[in-house]
C-alpha cells in the first residue's frame, strides 16, 4: 500500500502493546490500522494470545498466519489447530473464536471493508 503522493508508507516496529488493560493476555499492534471510513485493500496487525481466548464477528474476511505457538480457530462448530507457519481464513460475516491454550503470536490481515462496517460481539476469556 502506498500513499497518494507515491511515497512509501513506513510503519516502524514496536513492542506488542496490550490490546486493553483489563485483557492482560491479549496484545495487538495495528500495523496498518482500521480506517473508520472503510477500505478497499487490506489491514494488517500483529497480535498474540497467552492462555486466553478471543471471539469476535467481522463483516470482512480475516486471515491469520501463525508466527509462533499454537492457535485454535472455531467457526460454526468447526475447529482447526494452527501451528507456526500455518494460516486460516475466517469468512466474512462469521463469528470466529481464537484460542491459545499456551501462547500464539499471529499476523492478522483483514480483507476489504469498503463501507467501514464495524466488528462486534467481542469476548475475551482467560483459559
Notes on the structure:
- This protein has 127 residues and is mainly β.
- The protein has strands spanning 18-20, 23-32, 43-49, 52-58, 62-75, 78-83, 87-90, 94-100, 104-110, 120-126.
- Strands 1, 2, 3, 4, 5, 6, 7, 8, 9 and 10 form a ten-stranded antiparallel sheet that branches.
- It is globular.
In short:
With about 130 residues, this protein is mainly β. It contains no helices and 10 strands.
Secondary-structure blueprint of this entry?
Blueprint: E1 18-20, E2 23-32, E3 43-49, E4 52-58, E5 62-75, E6 78-83, E7 87-90, E8 94-100, E9 104-110, E10 120-126
Antiparallel strand pairs: 1-2, 2-3, 3-9, 4-8, 4-10, 5-6, 5-7, 5-8, 5-9
**General form:** globular
CATH class: Mainly Beta
CATH superfamily: Jelly Rolls
Distance between the termini: 37 Å
CATH architecture: Sandwich
Q: Count up the helices.
A: 0
Order of helices and strands: EEEEEEEEEE
Characterize the main sheet.
10 strands, antiparallel
Backbone CA Rg: 15 Å
Taken together, the total number of domains comes to 1
Pfam family, one: Cupin_2
Protein name: Cupin type-2 domain-containing protein
Domain Cupin type-2: 53-94
Amino acid at each position: 500500500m502506498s500513499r497518494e503522493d507515491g511515497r512509501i508508507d513506513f510503519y516502524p516496529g514496536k513492542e506488542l502493546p496490550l490490546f486493553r488493560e483489563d485483557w492482560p493476555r491479549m496484545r495487538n499492534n495495528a500495523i496498518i490500522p482500521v480506517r473508520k471510513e472503510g477500505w478497499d485493500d487490506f489491514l494488517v496487525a500483529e497480535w498474540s494470545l497467552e492462555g486466553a481466548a478471543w471471539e469476535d464477528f467481522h463483516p470482512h474476511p480475516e486471515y491469520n498466519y501463525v508466527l509462533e505457538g499454537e492457535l485454535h480457530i472455531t467457526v460454526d462448530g468447526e475447529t482447526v489447530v494452527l501451528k507456526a507457519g500455518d494460516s486460516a481464513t475466517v469468512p466474512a460475516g462469521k463469528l470466529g473464536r481464537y484460542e491459545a491454550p499456551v501462547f500464539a503470536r499471529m499476523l492478522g490481515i483483514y480483507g476489504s471493508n469498503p463501507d467501514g462496517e464495524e466488528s462486534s460481539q467481542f469476548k475475551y476469556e482467560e483459559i
